Amino acid sequence: MPRTEAANEQIRRETASRILASARAVYARKGGAATVAEIAKEAGVSQGLPYRYFRTKQELFRSLIQGILHDQSESTGWAQSSGGSPGERFERMVTNMVELRRMSPELFQAFHQGLDRRTLPAKLRQDIIQHGQRVRLTLRHLIEEGQATGEIVEGNPDQLLVALLAILEGLSRIGWAHSASEEVAFPEAKIVLRMFLRERRTP
Amino acid sequence: MPRTEAANEQIRRETASRILASARAVYARKGGAATVAEIAKEAGVSQGLPYRYFRTKQELFRSLIQGILHDQSESTGWAQSSGGSPGERFERMVTNMVELRRMSPELFQAFHQGLDRRTLPAKLRQDIIQHGQRVRLTLRHLIEEGQATGEIVEGNPDQLLVALLAILEGLSRIGWAHSASEEVAFPEAKIVLRMFLRERRTP
Amino acid sequence: MPRTEAANEQIRRETASRILASARAVYARKGGAATVAEIAKEAGVSQGLPYRYFRTKQELFRSLIQGILHDQSESTGWAQSSGGSPGERFERMVTNMVELRRMSPELFQAFHQGLDRRTLPAKLRQDIIQHGQRVRLTLRHLIEEGQATGEIVEGNPDQLLVALLAILEGLSRIGWAHSASEEVAFPEAKIVLRMFLRERRTP
Amino acid sequence: MPRTEAANEQIRRETASRILASARAVYARKGGAATVAEIAKEAGVSQGLPYRYFRTKQELFRSLIQGILHDQSESTGWAQSSGGSPGERFERMVTNMVELRRMSPELFQAFHQGLDRRTLPAKLRQDIIQHGQRVRLTLRHLIEEGQATGEIVEGNPDQLLVALLAILEGLSRIGWAHSASEEVAFPEAKIVLRMFLRERRTP
DNA sequence: AATGAATGAGTCTTCATTCAT
DNA sequence: GATGAATGAAGACTCATTCAT
Hints:
The structure is a homotetramer. Chain A is an all-alpha fold. The first copy, chain A, is about 75% helix and about 0% strand. Chain A folds into two domains: about 1-55, Arc Repressor Mutant, subunit A, CATH 1.10.10; about 60-195, Orthogonal Bundle (Tetracycline Repressor, domain 2). Chain A has helices spanning about 5-30, 35-45, 50-55, 55-80, 85-105, 105-115, 120-150, 155-180, 190-195. Chain A is elongated and about 60 Å long. The interface of A and B includes residues 155, 159, 161 and 174 of A. Chain B binds a DNA duplex through helix 1.
């Protein structure tokens, strides 16, 4: 008796995510030098199997990245939509992003590592740029609003934005680089926020 | 009649730096995916020539990185040795490092890109770790001194250090990623410094 | 449905020996100039396949040589262990070695051809030297014993030994050099033995 | 004032033989793996110079081999032409050839090493075959004559010939293989001759 | 006549991808 | 759905050969 359709579907889903998880780990470890063979081995499947789930290695990588983008979007959206003053929303978003990087450095590492290759498929490149654009716009907007309400420091909002993006990217990498060997003093969000928020003087 | 000894040395020096410069550009662009063929092509020499100057591709890469480390050391040493209070020295060093990244993002990009490969030759890895250690120790020291004099904000000095390193790394990457296509609002050093320096109230 | 474990092992064994056999032929023909591409072609497989069986070309070569050493050891051991007077054992061993060279000149040719390269991996060099040493010691011993019993001619046993080794090596080469084109009058063992054995006078 | 024609000629001759001597040494050492660069270095000249004297590497090699063939011919001719019974002439020739190999193993080694490559230029191959043929014919003839006079042992003269050639080739190689490291007990000619000459009973 | 920097074809090796089972 | 043997294109590296000086 053949497996039911549903059971098959279930197996497919599970195998696919096992492969993706393995890919994430290997990309984080090896960057562009990740090989399909190693991904398969780490996932405990045969060399050929990934090709039943992803047409090519690039497709597998694309899927990996889009999962990350999707997670980020969700988390960003939530922080954004949950009310409060611009400064509060900014604070929540930044805290959120810093925490994400503290918790899963390997996820962001996979992301950045993979992006190194300048040979990204056009479609993926597009997605990433779009996603980054969305995040940047949201943050940029919050910064300006926050400056208007006096919650955020003055200064060129574009430069502030870039400084924020820079530290976020830096934290992704540093978190990972050390996570394996030594304990790293991952900074608390409030240290980062100090760059942006005005001193609140409690009388 | 053969060339004079001096003429040959001159040629060799020039060719070597043409190859190194080309390597820097290609590594910045392609990261670990840089090929010797492309480096050679960009330098306008044959595929085989780099091997008369550097025994292997890794050796070429090592030479590239060590040049960067050397430049950085010099510049850091200068900022450090030129007197003033801890806070002033810290300010000078950070400003210096930020400016370096604004001026030659492609240099630091080559640096980080290449480091992604987890397959660095042991010797080079050692040098890099040592260099990083030296920089970290210096900064860490300044932070503590600055906290003592009240010039630098309070908080776990290790976390402050990591935040600083993170933003420096992030600026390297971001500077590059955008430099080619769009104009990016590279943040001024004082934005970064705000994370660390206490508000100086002018009466 | 995947192949059974046993079927795979079978395939691997067969492919490995097809590659080794091809390597033997090509080394015999080309010596150090043998290329992996040609070995693969002669074995009827793709260029890359040998690397799934032998890590490097050297490893493939090593495997080839060790097979030969192993065969030789077996055959030598047998000749040695099967009793009789020293002269008889010596006669059997030499006959055996001459016959081996008549039967498979291409095997010994591969052996010598490959050894020409002065760039042998240390481990292999070691094995070969050890093996040669063993053979030499055995023969040397037999020569001295044979001289004691009066079966073997007098004279410096070391010189006798070298003369024997020389003719064996020479036969390997000559057998091969001609086997392809002309019929060669491969000498019978007794011609060689005449160098060493005393005339037995039948009354 | 330009050099005189004669002086130039002199220089050319000397340089050419320095290169040839170096080539002989390097071929003996490295076999087919000998490189022009190494030959030039050992000769103390620039990489390009050999090409002013020999059109190609093969041409250089050909010249090397032909020198060896020429030397051998001379020496063989002398041994042959100097009178005596067939057995005596045979004895002289063999002694001569053995001694040559004892004295200059590296010369014969270069010869054999180079021949490994089955990619010999047709012309050279021809020369070598012809030369070998000449030597073989001479020896073959002497063997038959010696058998007729009862000086040389009975048996298939072709097989005797091959045995002789084999030991000569073997001695070339063995002489060299050991000459560098250990003292080898190079056999005296009379040991070799025992294969061929009848016992002479002195009453 | 001599030099050595430069070239580029050829070789080893890796790895994404296919396919018979 | 899964396996792993096999393929072949691409990249690192070597070395015979050329050429400006």
